[in-house]
From TrEMBL:
One of its GO terms (cellular component) is ribonuclease H2 complex. The keyword Nucleotide-binding does not apply. SUPFAM superfamilies: Ribonuclease H-like. It comes from the Bacteria. The lineage of its organism: Bacteria, Pseudomonadati, Bacteroidota, Chitinophagia, Chitinophagales. Keywords: Cytoplasm, Endonuclease, Hydrolase, Manganese, Metal-binding, Nuclease. It is found in: Cytoplasm. Its cofactor is Mn(2+); Mg(2+). Belongs to the RNase HII family. This is Ribonuclease. GO terms for biological process: DNA replication, removal of RNA primer; mismatch repair. Its EC number is 3.1.26.4. Endonuclease that specifically degrades the RNA of RNA-DNA hybrids.
Length: 164
């Protein structure tokens, strides 16, 4: 069932991804790399990635439904921000599924190159295991440098999310 990507099992997310990609009128996924996130911040980078994805759509939308409470205007297309929108609108849930599965696939590639960070299981988030690996091996070329990475920081205070 289509829902917030965090509420769907990885297997179901992957199945839904195939269905969405085959049946959506239009879809696109874009990424902003970790260096740019460090330069402009995570929120602006998220908006930029959304804009890049919108640039790739084959159909120009008449209204953008955005999951969250803010967004940077895109061209002259009106938008509506909806907190927890992925649990309300199928289109937002589908976008969430695509973003999560593409990101998880990317994290799997990073894991192949740097397995000691265990990106296959932590997906780049600041788990204890990930913080311990950073303490032991240091940051690699894919880590954002703009966040506090001390292992004693609580997970809520830090964000090791590795960006695409």
């Amino acid at each position: 069932m289509l829902n917030d990507s965090k509420q769907v099992t990885p297997e179901d997310r992957n199945e839904l991804r195939g269905y969405i990609e085959a049946n959506a009128l239009a879809w696109a996924v874009a990424k902003v790399d970790h260096d740019e996130v460090d330069r402009i911040n995570i929120l602006k980078a998220s908006f930029k990635a959304m804009h890049l994805a919108l640039d790739e759509l084959k159909i120009r939308p008449r209204l953008l439904l955005i999951d969250g409470n803010r967004f940077t205007k895109y061209k002259r297309i009106p938008h509506r921000c909806i907190v927890k929108g992925d649990s309300i609108f199928a289109s937002i849930a589908a976008a969430s599924i695509l973003a999560k599965t593409w990101r998880d696939e990317y994290m799997q590639l990073l894991h192949t190159e740097f397995p000691h960070y265990r990106w296959d299981s932590n997906k780049g988030y600041g788990t204890k295991e990930h913080r311990d690996a950073i303490e032991k091996f240091g940051l690699c070329k894919y880590h954002r440098k703009s966040f506090n990475i001390s292992p004693e920081s609580s997970q809520e205070e830090i964000d090791f999310e590795v960006n695409q």
